[in-house]
Design goal:
Length: about 200
C-alpha cells in the first residue's frame, strides 16, 4: 500500500514537471500573454500639427480639445495649394501650450510642423471569457487607456472600457497569442483596432 502511494506521488510529480504552465490556457496566462504582447504595449500616439492647416483639421475633435485648453491658437491664413477646404488656419502653440508640450517632445526638430507625442497606454482590466476548440481558442477581454501625461488626460477618458476578442493557438511549447489570422480569427493588433466600447 505504501509503495503504491509513493509510486502515485512520484508519477504525479513527474507529470507536473513535464507540463509547462503555458500548456493550460487559464485567465491568468491569457492576461500575461496579452499584456506582454508588442501590440498591446504599443502606446497611443498623437501627432501635434502646427503651421497652416485646413478648416477640417482645425475643427477636428482633438484640435477642439487643444483649443479649449488654450494650448493652441489659430490665426486665419490663406490656404496653400493642396490644402482645403478653406478657410485655413495658421496654428501655433500658445505660451501655455509650449509649457505643456515641450517636455513631451523627446527630440524636437526646429521648424517641424508635425511632432509625435505619446499620450496613453493600454491597461488590461479583465478576461471575460475563453472559448477553446482543440488547439485554437478565442479570448475576450476588456481594457482601457491610461493617460501618460496631461495631454493624454485631456484626449482620453480612462473611464471608457473597450471589449476585444483575440485568437490564441496552442503550439508544442504552449499557448501563444496569434500574430497572424488563423481560420478567420483576429490577431491581437486587429482585435485592439476593432475594439468596441464595453457596456
Amino acid at each position: 500500500m505504501r509503495t503504491a502511494k509513493a509510486l502515485a506521488v512520484t508519477v504525479s510529480l513527474f507529470l507536473a514537471l513535464a507540463c509547462s504552465p503555458r500548456d493550460f490556457l487559464t485567465r491568468r496566462l491569457a492576461t500575461d500573454l496579452i499584456s506582454a504582447s508588442e501590440a498591446f504595449r504599443a502606446p497611443q500616439v498623437f501627432y501635434l500639427r502646427t503651421g497652416v492647416i485646413s478648416n477640417k483639421d482645425f475643427s477636428a475633435p482633438d484640435s477642439l480639445v487643444l483649443q479649449r485648453r488654450g494650448w493652441i491658437i489659430g490665426n486665419p491664413a490663406p490656404c496653400p495649394v493642396g490644402v482645403e477646404p478653406p478657410p485655413c488656419w495658421d496654428v501655433l502653440l500658445s505660451p501655455h501650450g509650449v509649457e505643456v508640450f515641450r517636455p513631451l517632445m523627446p527630440n524636437p526638430t526646429p521648424g517641424a510642423s508635425l511632432v509625435e507625442i505619446r499620450l496613453a497606454r493600454r491597461q488590461l482590466l479583465e478576461i471575460t471569457g475563453i472559448s477553446r476548440a482543440d488547439n485554437n481558442a478565442e479570448v475576450e477581454f476588456t481594457w482601457h487607456w491610461v493617460a501618460l501625461n496631461e495631454v493624454g488626460t485631456a484626449l482620453y477618458d480612462n473611464g471608457v472600457r473597450y471589449r476585444s476578442t483575440v485568437a490564441f493557438r496552442k503550439y508544442d511549447d504552449g499557448w501563444r497569442v496569434t500574430t497572424e489570422a488563423v481560420h478567420g480569427n483576429q490577431t491581437l493588433d486587429e482585435a485592439l483596432h476593432n475594439a468596441q466600447p464595453a457596456p
